[in-house]
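re: the backbone from monday

yeah here it is again, tokenized this time
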């Protein structure tokens, strides 16, 4: 286990994709009836980076984008949110940037993801080996980086280099079935990644998937906390979360809000949770602050632009009646 006090450095390297989200506009419009869309930064890793910078942290992204107008749009969006992109490489040929076409509505929300020949899967060993890990506070990644080669080997190489530099490894499971050739390949790969990480965040379905059965997901989370991880957060949607460490276990509720959409909550939770740990909040408070960030994002349009700043989070916490009973 790495020293989590290093998180106080508040400067994070994130391995994973930067995409573009197209939202049917105005909110409530179904994609098939849309005549207008608005675009924002997308991709789970890029969204986490945007969330961290909103909280005053530094974030550097390691990935690939397509060498075309859409890739340049993603780069411009990273600049807009202050996410450092010195380790973002452009790739040509048939590789294309990840795209999502999404609706801002809560019921039957459609999200169509275009990932065939995705540029971010072209990340190589050379991309991750060019990073000076020693200058960062932690490495963060999401599970999508492991779904295809050469990105998978590159991400594991990045894990090894970060660990050698003493960095805590933070892993958002983020299972997307459409990216994988088989469930077994995904489960084996996620288990391998989880065993290397210090902080693991996922929902009950994702942990159940790793365990091979939904009803064994909590057992899997507890096993990871006993064997390798310092912190495991087992999210259960409206039922809140169970946070597990080698020494203790506790449950927390959620902050209820008038949601507009279901997307973006996980990325916002991760950003708020990590930023709160970096700021010195205790573990329970950090989980609750991450939960509040998730509640704020689902009540706003978009993902990256919906990420709250720290002052916005403090206002929300001061005005909200508080989390639900766990």
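seq for it, each position gets an aa:
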């Amino acid at each position: 286990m790495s020293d989590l006090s290093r998180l106080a450095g508040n400067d994070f390297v994130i391995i994973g994709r930067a995409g573009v989200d197209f939202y049917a506009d105005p909110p409530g419009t179904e994609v098939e009836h849309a005549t207008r869309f608005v675009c924002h930064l997308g991709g789970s890793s890029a969204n986490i980076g945007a969330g961290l910078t909103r909280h005053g942290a530094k974030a550097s992204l390691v990935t690939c984008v397509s060498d075309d107008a859409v890739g340049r749009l993603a780069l411009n969006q990273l600049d807009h949110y202050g996410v450092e992109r010195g380790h973002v490489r452009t790739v040509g040929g048939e590789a294309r940037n990840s795209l999502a076409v999404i609706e801002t509505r809560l019921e039957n929300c459609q999200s169509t993801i275009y990932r065939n020949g995705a540029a971010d899967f072209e990340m190589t060993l050379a991309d991750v080996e060019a990073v000076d890990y020693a200058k960062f506070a932690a490495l963060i990644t999401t599970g999508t980086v492991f779904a295809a080669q050469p990105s998978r080997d590159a991400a594991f190489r990045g894990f090894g280099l970060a660990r050698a530099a003493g960095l805590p490894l933070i892993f958002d499971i983020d299972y997307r079935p459409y990216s994988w050739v088989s469930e077994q390949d995904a489960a084996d790969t996620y288990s391998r990644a989880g065993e290397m990480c210090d902080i693991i965040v996922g929902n009950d379905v994702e942990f159940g998937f790793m365990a091979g059965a939904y009803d064994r997901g909590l057992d899997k989370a507890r096993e990871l906390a006993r064997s390798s991880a310092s912190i495991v957060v087992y999210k259960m949607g409206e039922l809140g979360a169970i946070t597990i460490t080698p020494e203790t276990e506790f449950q927390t509720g959620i902050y209820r809000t008038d949601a507009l959409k279901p997307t973006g909550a996980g990325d916002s939770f991760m950003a708020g949770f990590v930023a709160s740990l970096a700021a010195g909040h205790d573990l329970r408070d950090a989980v609750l602050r991450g939960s509040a960030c998730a509640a704020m994002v689902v009540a706003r349009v978009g993902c990256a632009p919906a990420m709250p700043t720290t002052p916005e989070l403090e206002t929300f916490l001061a005005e909200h009646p508080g989390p639900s009973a766990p």
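The longest strand covers residues 58-66. The domain at 4-17+44-63+122-319 is CATH 3.40.1190.20 (UDP-N-acetylmuramoyl-L-alanine:D-glutamate ligase).
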